[in-house]
Amino acid sequence: xxxxxxxxxxxxxxxxxxxxxxxxxxxxxxxxxxxxxxxxxxxxxxxxxxxxxxxxxxxxxxxxxxxxxxxxxxxxxxxxxxxxxxxxxxxxxxxxxxxxxxxxxxxxxxxxxxxxxxxxxxxxxxxxxxxxxxxxxxxxxxxxxxxxxxxxxxxxxxxxxxxxxxxxxxxxxxxxxxxxxxxxxxxxxxxxxxxxxxxxxxxxxxxxxxxxxxxxxxxxxxxxxxxxxxxxxxxxxxxxxxxxxxxxxxxxxxxxxxxxxxxxxxxxxxxxxxxxxxxxxxxxxxxxxxxxxxxxxxxxxxxxxxxxxxxxxxxxxxxxxxxxxxxxxxxxxxxxxxxxxxxxxxxxxxxxxxxxxxxxxxxxxxxxxxx
Length: 371
Hints:
With 371 residues, this protein is mainly β.
């Protein structure tokens, strides 16, 4: 073989290596400046990620220590856990060891009072920001539970699910009425609630006029360490990445297994919906043949993305989690009861049902395979 032919072979091997598809990635393409990643259904890592249960909070029979309907939580730098209990209209504080410390919050509509607390955020200056759905306001407390100030949301129709970034801006979902039609609009707001940009807008039926598929109303949005917004609707397995200015720069997709909705699934969902006076909400609900591909979306401090699916395990409340690296590559898969709600380093806090069917908060140590 002459020298020139040898060089051609080496060059061919190098090119083949550089353009090879990454393991676990089906296809990567750039469309209008947006990186689109199509993942296969097998993760890159063969070993599983383990969620190791460390402690459980809220399962006590004592009323103050138990959790009636936990809907949000945050953890401070000292490991203290603050849980928003919607039904009790209180914020409950637990130690890093999971011991109950105290509660604060008075039910009512006055300054600093709570009616139905929803999300809870920890501000960059160390305050607790509590979203009150029924009172249509956000309330700021010290970590000891002292009322500081509040901001009315009365100018916004149904602004909920607020997510706070490090600059004090909000990501939230607002109801907008246009020409007798109702829309959910996901937006970024400044601290004064003026709009920065719109992420998504989609119509949903008026519950007084027709049937509702609850799954069609669900959206997910999370922030990574750079302030990018990860957004997903559960009508498809697709995660969109927006930079802090609202520019779409990456889309991650994955093939998924369709999970059929059984009658038992429907009965379990209806049993969890509280009865209301007047209109029976349960009579207005309809269900698709299959569950949507996404049940929950979460981002850890290393910017890995966790997608909780509706694929069940053998144990009660056990589901498969798909895990992606920051570049959107399908990295790993694991089976767990945990719903990865809030991260603090390599530990995750989950709001889930215990074996008796009561809502609790659990902390897990997340163990990755050794390299």
